Each structure stands twice: as structure tokens, then as C-alpha cells.
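Let's study a protein:

___
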Amino acid sequence: MLCQGYYQTEEQAADQLKRFVSTYDTKEEWLERAEVIRKGILAGAELETPQEKCQLNVIFKNKRFYEGYAVENIAFESLPGFFVTGNLYRPSGLSGPFPGILCPHGHWNQPENYGRFREDMQKRCAVLAKIGCIVFSYDMVGYGESLQCSHDHPKVLKLQLWNSIRALDFLYSLPEIDTTRIAVTGASGGGTQTFLLTAVDQRVKLSVPVVQVSAHFFGGCVCESGMPIHKSKHHETNNVEIAALAAPRPMLIISDGQDWTLNTPEIEFPYISNIYKLFNAEDQIENIHLENEGHDYGPSKRAGVYRFIAKHFNLDMSRICNDLGEIDEDFIKILDRKELEVFNENQRELLFSESGLQSLDNFLK
């Protein structure tokens, strides 16, 4: 029942979408199918039974101010004693309420280009903060400071999706957040987290999955396809349809010519656009396809995201543009990993408390 990696050829993927589209003609019929898919995701991730939510017990540390934004180090408990770690970027010099943006990351694991500490992640978060968003970037399980569970755990998908749901709870807990303007965006494995969270949680109001929506590629890591979210006795789907569960909420899909999103303008985007048409919401779905670019969250991809979010959340792009109207990211202070970490060496024992490890074991059993 597991659909992993390059599970099918590009031709098989196109045929599968033709078969899927034959099962509905109207918005009502799509909504019935969408609910089957959503239940299939939750059942496959072992989250179909509502989970008891513990107190977040948020830790806020080391808030510092830069040009037009502030950064602080954050941890909260998604399970009793189990911490989600990350950084919160806030606007400075602006009055709220503010949109909230979640920024999960993908499998970037080289020391010079790692997880939430990457330069492109810091730039994305700082720019979105400067134009008026509160942005939370957080560690993927087993990356950064998320050391209580390894990333290769067979049920890491369950934990990672749960952490994203709790990250929404964290944004909702902030009094200055406008809960009618909540978005999520990430690239690669962060793109998978983006469309999975959007699919199962209606609190997400805008979605931008970057370089990941593919009909023939299902994600190559256990955190994306290690549990039966795509196929069971009761459902069959792929990541294109999972992304389409965002409809009719605004969604920007960013693709490129050098990875598994190379067919997006001809295959994936038309399929999703047709679903948006059922809602008369064609103006809510866009695709930026960068034929000559590759698998990253680079400057041109970020620029598209800034404009899309600013348009739908009514934000002021002039705060990040120069006199020529070009996006200028030079104001950003790039911080090293130590500055962005929540826990120092003496505090990391919190990550391995007996109660935290026991609650994690109970959750993943």
C-alpha cells in the first residue's frame, strides 16, 4: 500500500489522473472524493482519531531586532515533554493583527546549507516579516534541535504532520495573529509538509508548495511516503490530488525544469486548475514554472511567493522593494546556527526527559 519515490512512470501518472478525473463532474462529486482522500490521509497517518492536545508550554528566548523585523528562538510541546523547535520572525514598526505563516523545510542536510538555518530560509522568513507577517520556521523531525526522534523512524510522517498541526495551534495562540490569514509554504520535503497540512487542516487559508507537487513522484523519504496515505482498501490518490484539497483556497504551485516537477504546466497544474474551476475559483490558483531552474527555494521562487502572499493577504510590497520596484533582500541579517538555537548544551537534557520520551513512544506505538 506504500507509494514511495518514483512509484510510477510519467505516462502511468498521466493515465492515473485521467482515471481519477472520470470519477467526478461537479463540485459536489469532487467534495465527496476530497473527503475520502482526506480521511485516507488521516487514517494512513494514524491520525483519524482526534488526538488529545497538551498545553503548548511555549518557550520564548533571545528576541532581537533588525531592519523591519525581529527574530526570537521558540520551542513548544507538541506532546507532553516533546518539543518543536524553531524561530519566530515578527514585523517591527507595524501594527497588527498580522497574517501567520508556517515555514517547514526539506531535506537539506549539508552543514553549510542545513535545515531551518539555511540562508534562503532566513531570507524568506525575514522578508515575509518585514511586509507584515508573523512567520514560524521549525525543525523537521530529527533535524536541527529536534533530537528526540530520528528522521528515519517508520512513523515519522505521523509525528511530522502532528507537529505541523500543533504549529498552527501555536500561531493561533499568539494574540496579534489574524486567523483569517494563515499560510504555509515550504520546498521539497517542506513542500510535502505544506500540502499535507493544507489538506487536513482548514485553518490554512493559503498554500505555496514549492518544487514538490508531482503526479509520478511520491516523495522519497519515510516522512513523505512511509505510511499508507496515498493508497488503502478505501482510497487511492497521489500528491496532485492531495495538493488540490486546498481548493478553493489560494494556492501557488512553483515548479522547475530539472526535477520531478518538470511536467507541472502540462500535467499537474491543469488537473488542479480544473478542480478550482468547479468552485469558480480559477483566480485563486497559479503556477510559476521556471524551466531553467532546479530544486531549491531560490531568489526567483521566493519573489513569486512574496508577491502571491502580498496580493492575497493585502500586504505592502513597497517595504521590500528598491526605487526600481525590484525586491531587495540586502537588509537581512544572516545569523549563524548558534544564534538561532533555543537550547544550549546545558539545557538539552530537557529533550531527553523520561516523560517526553514516554509520551513520544505512546504516540508512535
Q: What stands out?
A: The chain has one domain: 10-344. The two ends are 20 Å apart (CA to CA). The chain has a mean pLDDT of 96. The first helix runs from residue 10 to 21.
